[in-house]
Design brief:
mainly beta; Pectate Lyase C-like; 6-stranded parallel β-sheet; 1 helix; 19 strands; globular
Length: about 210
């Protein structure tokens, strides 16, 4: 699927668990890339993707999905043109023992999201050499509901247990684990749920169940 971008606007549903334990990490690529995101529907059907590894510390937008949502119309991430009929959604998906690392925008589920993520979970380790690392998403400009992450998140700047850098609504989400921001700002942009909320509307966007 990662090697067939022509299918990134299609609908998929898992019918069994997927285990990457015996797959060479050098052969694994994220689904969707910056400027050409996954715009379809991926329904995990409550199955699990386990032991996914992607270590590309010179690359950005790293996760099981590199980028989810409508096509990005500007090089500065966060500026997008939303198409409600082609916006990208991932639902009902469990990801276990993920190990991903990259330069910017690194997440256990996705590096960047401007679509919809619902009823998903991630366990594992996430690291960004530069910034925007999150257990679920590195950078979020979409909608997140009923998700949780468990594990360890590290970044030089901007690290969040659930989301590194957030610009979208989040509801009924949680995180358990450790978060480490290693840069010169030392903890200024780190948090258990969000590392940095650039909208600055915390209580309006982070619903009380989070």
């Amino acid at each position: 699927m990662a090697n067939h971008p022509v299918d990134w606007d299609k609908c998929f549903i898992l019918t069994d668990n997927i285990d990457f334990d015996h797959v060479d990490p050098n052969l694994i690529l994220p689904i969707g890339i910056y400027g050409m995101p996954f715009k379809g529907l991926f329904n995990g059907n409550h199955y699990t993707i386990s032991n996914f590894q992607c270590r590309s510390e010179a690359e950005s937008y790293i996760g099981v999905f590199g980028s989810i949502g409508p096509e990005i119309s500007h090089r500065s991430y966060g500026l997008v043109s939303h198409d409600p009929n082609n916006s990208g959604s991932v639902i009902n998906l469990n990801i276990e023992n993920v190990r991903v690392s990259g330069y910017n925008c690194v997440g256990g589920l996705a590096g960047y999201n401007s679509g919809i993520i619902s009823n998903c979970s991630v366990t594992g380790n996430v690291a960004a050499v530069s910034k925007d690392a999150g257990g679920l998403l590195g950078f979020n400009d979409g909608e997140i509901t009923d998700c949780y992450a468990l594990g360890n998140v590290k970044s030089d700047l901007v690290a969040g247990g659930l989301i590194g850098h957030n610009k979208g609504p989040i509801k009924d989400c949680s995180f358990s684990g450790s978060v480490e921001e290693k840069g010169t700002h030392g903890g200024w942009c780190s948090g258990g749920i969000i590392g940095w909320d650039s909208i600055r509307r915390g209580i309006d966007w982070l619903q009380s169940a989070c």
